[in-house]
Each structure stands twice: as structure tokens, then as C-alpha cells.
Amino acid sequence: MLLGIFRSVSASMSQASYTVKHSRDAGPIGRILARFGARHYIAITGISLIAAALLLPERDEPLQAAPLPATIEQALNEHERIDFDLLLPPSEHVAEVMAMPWQQVKISNGDSMAVAFKRAGLSAQDLHAVMQNDIAAPVLRKVMPGRHVEFQTDEEGRLSALRYPIDSLSTLFVEREGDSFRAQTLEKAVATRPQFASATIESSLFAAGQSAGLNDSVIMELAGIFGYDIDFALDLRVGDRFSVVYEERLVEGLPAGPGNILAAEFTNLGKTFRAVRYVDANGKASYYTPDGHSMRKAFLRMPVPFARVSSNFNLSRKHPILNRIRAHKGVDYAAPAGTPIYASGDGKISFVGTKGGYGRMVAIQHGGNFTTHYAHLSRYGKGISTGKRVSQGQVIGYVGSSGLATAPHLHYEFLVNGVHRNPRTVPLPQAEPVPAAEKDRFIAATAPVLATLDAHSRIMVADNQ
Ligand SMILES: [Zn+2]
């Protein structure tokens, strides 16, 4: 018993902002404590810690603190108690309701909300009323086994409030309002700290990134930042290397996944590119070279992520199906069916539909001079229709093999003033640089993170020599 309390306390003391309840060890006092709000729990266990410390010398065996979960997601998946105190309530009223005692019901395999309501002694009428709410219903329809849904009731035993952790960062909060319920999502405060990683490419960008401890989403973002300058489908070589300073997000003092890349350096075929993130005076974040040029061009060189060029731009190619000379006025990117296709630049959809050998096709008009075509799609992007404005990187469709195609691929065409140009070599106009009026602000904001990148990169190069 004593050991149990001490374990739960030591866990909450060693990570001051995070309290966990180890139900296995908690015993009857722990179970009683669990019925109070987290604030009470901390206060009471604080007293127990003193009691435990006073009695410690009588025990021969050294006490071992229970292992802390490594990440906040792991904590949630291991069914630990998540500290609701760290949510940011939108009002004093919500904060007060959150601090009142909750009745906890654990979701078991196959349980629905109806089962949880029944177990808590709540009426089917209350369940029906909650499920009328558009925010609450989709969350409560797919609750995760192992997690807890919590309830508060009024004097008549009717449901007055409900809460359920959606993920490590957000909790669904539902409250009675007359005969119906209103719902909202409460978010937790997220802190960030900079992290550094670097790697040299030996087989693939992903393998190198993973060996450096990077999450796939950071590797994707890195490729996105340098994707205008480096053709990741074709030009990546063994010995290329990168360094990256990125944000690690922390919730309740535990890692909660990566945030933004703050600065990065990529050396490809002996040429080094550098990028730094800058949030401009209007609050828009973009990546720039250290001297303020945009890392973006007005067009993506490649409108699909991580595809392989299966057929190049060639005005005298023998067509693989028709078996006669027919100009190939675009580039074919082989990728699995269903791979998203991005608008390569900002523009307006000028065509959506089926067009002979092209199969399902989308065309985008970019200002007066440029047009891009995307063919053989399996389906169109959500809301894509003629006349609609799209922005660079927006999903306009998915790779397929509709029309005259032997295997799933994107056929991509780039036209300048109505003339087909090679999408892989046509000079692309640059996106807007940092405005002249913001130059000083840009330098002040980016100098510290660039200095961090410099310092770490130098160490890495020295280590490799
Ligand atoms: Zn083609």
C-alpha cells in the first residue's frame, strides 16, 4: 500500500507538470483519490509523500520509481490518467466545472457510448440528446478501448457534463444546456524546444532521417522545403547530407511529436542550400534563404511526393501503347494509385473531366502565361471544379491509370504561352522574397536559429573528417 502511494507520488514529483495514476498500485486510497479532481489528488498525495518519507527507513529494499511513459501518446495509450489541469479552459465557468468531481467509466473492447452510459446509470434520453450534438457525436461514436469517459450528474441524476480525451492534446467537453447539450474541444498548452539532427545519405532520405531520429513528417517537410532546388526523385546521391533544427513539442513535460522545422541545410551533389523559417508581419510563415529570397518558386518542380520519373519529356518518342512516334509533351511520374497530386502553383482550374487518352484530367491556368495539365487521374480532389481557385500544394486529384496508360502514373505538362515545355528543366519564376520593409525584422528574427544551425553543422562536419 505504502509502496503504491509512493510510486504514484514519485511519478508526479519527478515530472512536476505531469501526474499519473498507476491504478495497479494505487489500492483503495488510490481508488478513492481517483474520484476527486486532479487538484485534490496532487494535494492529498503531497501529504502522503511526507508520510511515506517518514516511514522509509524501516524498509530494506530500495524503492524504485515507476517508469514514466516516454511520450504523451504512450501515456494515453497505456491508459494512464491524463492531467486535465493542463487544458486551457476557454472560460472561468468551464474551469470550475472541470475541477469538480467526475465519475469515471473505462471503455472496454467493443463498448459503445450506450454501454458506458448504462454503466454510469445514465438515461438513454441523455445519450440521445448528447448524440444530437455535431461536435460530440463523431468523437463519441468511435471511442477507444482503454480510455475513460467521465461524467457529472445533477441532483436528479441527469447528465450535466461529460468529458473524453480525444488525443494527447485535446479533450471533448460536453455540458447540459436546458434539454440539449453543447460541446467544445479543450486544448492543452503546447511548449516547444529546439532539437537538432543531421545525417548523411547512404541509401535513402527516409533511412537517413530515421537513423538521425527524425519522424517521417519532418523528413517530408524537409523534402518539401528543398524540393524546389533538389529533385528528390532523381538527383539524390550517396554522400549527400543534411542538418536540421526543428521544434519538439512538449505537453505536460512529455514529448508530443515534432513541430515546425526552424532552419535546415541540405548538401546535394556538392552544392549546399540553406533555409530558415520566418513568420512575416502578417503572420504568414514561409521558408527563405538566409538572405531573404523565397525557398519557394511560383511552381513545384514535381507535383507528386516521392515519385519516380518513368518517361521524360521527348518530342520524338515512340508511344508504348500506340507503338509509333508520338511526341511525349510532358513527364510521367510513376507512383502508386491513389498518391495525391498537388497543384504545382497558385491558379484557377480551367478544365476538369475526361479527355481521350488523357483519361481523367485537370488543367490549371496560372496568371496569363502559364498552364499545367495533370492526366490519368484515378479521381479528382475534393471540391475541384472548373473556375475554382487553388493554391500551390493543394490536392487536386490522385494518381491513377485512366485513359491510355499501362500502369498508374501522373502525366504532367507545363505550358508557357501555349507551348509545351519540359517540366523538369523549364526555368521557374521565383516566389516573392521578404519585403524590403521587413528586411531588418527578418534578420533579427532568423539570426539566432541560423547561428544554432551553423554551430551544430560545424561539429558534424568535424566529426565526419
Ligand atoms: Zn505521359
TrEMBL record:
It is found in: Cell envelope. Its cofactor is Zn(2+). The keyword Metal-binding applies. CDD domains: M23_peptidase. Residues 196-314 form the Csd3-like second N-terminal domain. GO terms for molecular function: metal ion binding; metalloendopeptidase activity; peptidoglycan binding. Residues 102-181 form the Opacity-associated protein A LysM-like domain. Its main location: other. GO terms for biological process: proteolysis. Residues 327-423 form the M23ase beta-sheet core domain. GO terms for cellular component: cell envelope. Pfam families: Csd3_N2, LysM_OapA, Peptidase_M23. Keywords: Hydrolase, Metal-binding, Metalloprotease, Protease, Zinc. This is Murein DD-endopeptidase MepM/ murein hydrolase activator NlpD. It comes from Permianibacter aggregans. The lineage of its organism: Bacteria, Pseudomonadati, Pseudomonadota, Gammaproteobacteria, Pseudomonadales.
